[in-house]
Design a protein that fits this description.
Elements: E1 11-19, E2 28-36, E3 39-44, E4 53-56, E5 61-62, H1 69-75, H2 94-109
């Protein structure tokens, strides 16, 4: 299930997935997560959530809040990097671009 924003009025029960709790309580190999209006109400096993739409997560991993982490992990290294050239028609920022160019050269050097 992919969602970009909480659905107002949504009442969902994700059932039977491998729930990564991200806390000291530990993971649940066959856990349930009850959500209402995009907010977690309960995490556990064999939860009862009357009126909730049930989503079968058997054989799936249920993870809170890790959205597209592969992109953010490597992208952080490249923030502020540039090839050192001024964009066509752009302002002269030669000092800024020179600094970025030195950063870019330092990255492969370790």
């Amino acid at each position: 299930m992919t969602s970009t924003a909480p659905v107002s009025g949504a009442n969902l029960l994700i059932r039977g997935g491998y729930v990564l709790t991200m806390d000291s309580a530990g993971d649940l190999p066959a856990g349930d997560v009850h959500l209402r209006d995009g907010v977690i109400q309960q995490i556990g096993t064999n939860l009862d959530a009357p009126g909730a739409e049930v989503i079968d997560a058997s054989g799936k991993i249920v993870v809170p809040g890790l959205v597209d982490t592969h992109w953010h992990m490597w992208n952080t290294l490249l923030r502020g990097m540039s090839d050192g050239r001024r964009p066509p028609g752009g302002p002269d920022r030669s000092g800024y671009f020179a600094t970025c160019g030195r950063r870019r050269q330092a990255l492969p050097a370790g």
